[in-house]
Amino acid sequence: MRVQRNNPSKLARFIIELCSVFLGVTLAFALNRWNEEKKLRVTEEKILTEIKNGLELDISDTEVNISGHKAGIKAATTFLKLASGKEVQKDSLLISYHTLWRNFISIQNASGYESLKSRGLEVIRNDSLRYQIITLYDFYYEMIEKLEEEYSEMQYTEHYLPEMRPILHRHLMFDENGVLVGVKNRWWLYQSEQKLYFELLNRMIENRRFTIRIYKDIQKRIQLLVSQIDKELAKID
């Protein structure tokens, strides 16, 4: 009876072929994973850059609104002076009358954040950075938008003008086209009007000051976030 023995050379070839197949599959999987990871990093870099560009525009836009609210405070102060018998320049009065009621909208350049949400928030690997982005857009931006556009106290034309118009128009002069041209020499208020007049103007001033504080806080958060994004982009590069 013959005993069949394994051929060492055949066994070696089999092991080599098996290892080759395993190595090939492993390398293919690793290469595919590397390619996918590279795509994610390219996507992350693109989205972070887009968010950063939008934030830099937001800083400029918030500065415009801050300047507008400061002008509104100056306008309210002008009309407080008028009621106190202080002299006010005609040109200053004309500007102040229109600036007094001006409302603002919160302009947000959020295309980068929308891209992030559509791709998936997990595209950003840095948990802290991702949290800062979400907090800014979903909390602080939403807060200032509601404050500027929905909160009735901050709607100066709709909320204050109806009560102030009868008082102001009794002391101001308009031409046939309804354009403000000056103020009457004698400025006086009924006793029943005094409290309302000063209360409304001071409320407008305080509301605008409050809004400015919110904007400045948001500006600081934007600047910090831009700095964090720059650091993250440097890591990706």
Automatic annotation (TrEMBL):
Keyword line: Membrane, Transmembrane, Transmembrane helix
Pfam family, one: DUF6090
Chain ranges passing through the membrane: 12-31
InterPro entries, per database record: DUF6090 (IPR045749)
The protein's name: Uncharacterized protein
Organism from which the protein derives: Luteibaculum oceani
